[in-house]
Every structure is written in structure tokens, then in C-alpha cells.
Amino acid sequence: MQTRLRILAAAALAVGCLSTAAQAQTPPNGRLLASNCFQCHGTNGKGPGFDRLAGKSASEIYNELREFQSGKEGDGIMARHAMGFTDAQLRSLSGWLATQR
Question: What is the pLDDT of residues 56-80, one digit of tens each?
């Protein structure tokens, strides 16, 4: 009985450690969404040859994305990308990119 109790305690401790490690590795809000932008803008908004997003305000980035989403900027690749995000995701993505310098 004691051996079984020790095994259960060790398993519970291991699960608790894994849970804590997973929480510690959670990326900042918007960071994972930025991975969709990496090829043109980089995940930090400093991609080669395209509009630099790093350093722009969150509201400026958000408004630009909303314009793409609405179709005002045509139906190019940015419009298609923007249409794939919810409003909350656009805000999160804009916030992340605005923190990049």
C-alpha cells in the first residue's frame, strides 16, 4: 500500500511540474499570431522589403488590418490574411507588433 501511495505521489508531483513548466513557456499575447506574418514582416515586424510594423502604434496597425479586412485595400494577400482573424486576434496581434522596436 505504501509503495502504491509513493507512486501516486510521484506521479502527482511530475504532473504538477509539467503543468508549471507549460505555463512558464506560454508566449506573450499576440506572439503566436505574429508567426503568420513572418515571411514578409518577420515575427518582430522588421521583415525584409515590406512595410515595417515594428514601432507603429497598436491602433495604427489595428486600423490598417481592419481596412484590409473590410476589402477597402482590394483583395490581395493582406486582405486574405486579415480576413482570417477575429477582432480580438487583430487587437492582440497589433499589440504585440507595437511592442517591437
Answer: 999 999 999 999 999 888 888 899 9
Residue 65's domain comprises 28-99
What are the cell numbers at 81? Answer: 490574411
- Residue 39 belongs to a domain with what CATH number? 1.10.760.10
Q: pLDDT digits over 21-35, tens only? A: 556 788 888 888 888
Give the whole-angstrom CA distance, residue 42 versus residue 55.
13
Residue 18: C-alpha distances to residues 7, 11, 27, 62 (Å): 16, 11, 16, 36
Instruction: Specify if 71 maps to a domain.
Output: yes
Please list, in sequence order, all residues whose beta carbon lies within 8 angstroms of the beta carbon of residue 62, skipping any fewer than 6 positions away: 90, 91, 94
Total domain count for the chain? 1
> CA-CA distance, 21 to 38, in Å (whole number)?
26
